[in-house]
Design brief:
The complex is a heterodimer of chains A (183) and B (39). Chain A is mainly beta and 183 residues long. Chain A has one helix at residues 14-20, and strands spanning 26-33, 38-43, 53-60, 62-63, 67-73, 80-88, 95-102, 105-111, 115-122, 130-137, 144-152, 161-164, 170-171, 174-180. In chain A, the strands form three sheets. An eight-stranded antiparallel sheet of chain A has the order 1-14-3-9-10-11-6-7, with no helix packed on it. In chain A, strands 2-12-5-8 form a four-stranded antiparallel sheet, with no helix packed on it. In chain A, strand 10 (130-137) and strand 11 form a beta hairpin. The model of chain A has no long low-confidence stretch (mean pLDDT 94). In chain B, a hairpin with a 2-residue loop joins strand 1 (5-8) and strand 2. Chain B is globular. Chain B is of the alpha+beta class and 39 residues long. In chain B, strands 1-2 form a two-stranded antiparallel sheet. The longest helix of chain B has 9 residues, at 17-25. Classes of the chains: A mainly beta (183), B alpha+beta (39). Strand 2 of chain A pairs parallel with strand 1 (5-8) of chain B.
């Protein structure tokens, strides 16, 4: 979907306004309000051929446990590879953690009060390896900040994404999916 | 004792026994555990 450059005096039609006003770089796809005491949230039909790459943001809500939020593509529970470099908010050094052929991208986000998930998903709908890139921001002073990423080692086309807790349950907040507009 | 909830889009429901067994097998616990390693 291209942009349009209007010229001086050109008539701004309703059709053009509706099309190009919404033609931003990051386009809202869908959102889900997290319900009460859930261990996972599946957002179905959020990936399609409309976009190649997506952004998922979840900031808010509460958690009964301090743990990590994992991201799973569809119903696939194998083939996830993930690496992360992290640092606590204190004087500790930098460390790393990895997932090798795991059941999900385990350390994608921070499960706490508030919950925090900030990630880009690349090529989920394409018949290609889906990638993830995450910025992990610990929600309390005892947590860590991290930068991670990974791949799902298959070429499956996905329409759904699942956010999972590591322990306890989460309540509230909104998970929003955006698409990166193609030209 | 009720099983935890899961959510699919806007629907929140109690897990089935099978789903709960899978959840437990994944290592999930009810209690507070900080999985992200800290130095």
């Amino acid at each position: 979907m291209a942009v349009k450059t209007f010229t001086t005096g050109e008539v701004l039609t309703a059709a053009d306004t509706n099309t190009y006003l919404n033609n931003g770089g990051l386009v809202y796809v869908t959102s889900v309000t997290v319900g009460s005491a859930v261990t996972s949230v599946t957002i179905s039909s959020c990936f399609s051929s409309t976009y190649d790459n997506y952004r998922i943001i979840y900031k808010g809500g509460t958690s009964t446990a301090s743990n990590d939020l994992a991201v799973q593509m569809g119903t696939t529970t194998t083939g996830y590879y993930f690496g992360s470099i992290y640092k606590d908010y204190g004087g500790g050094g930098v460390a790393s953690i990895a997932v090798t052929n795991g059941a999900n991208w385990t350390y994608a986000g921070c499960q706490d009060t508030p919950n925090s998930l900030d990630c880009d998903i690349f090529l989920p709908y394409a018949s290609d390896k889906t990638n993830i890139s995450c910025a992990y921001v610990g929600s309390t002073t005892t947590r860590v900040v991290a930068r991670g990423g990974g791949i799902l080692n298959n070429t499956t086309s996905y329409t759904d994404v699942k956010i999972l807790v590591g322990a306890g349950t989460i309540t509230g907040g909104t998970i929003t999916v955006y698409g990166y507009r193609k030209a | 004792m009720p099983r935890p909830n899961i959510q699919i889009d806007d629907e929140v429901r109690e897990m089935t026994e099978e789903e709960y067994a899978e959840l437990i097998a994944s290592g999930w616990t009810e209690t507070t555990t900080e999985e992200t390693p800290t130095e």
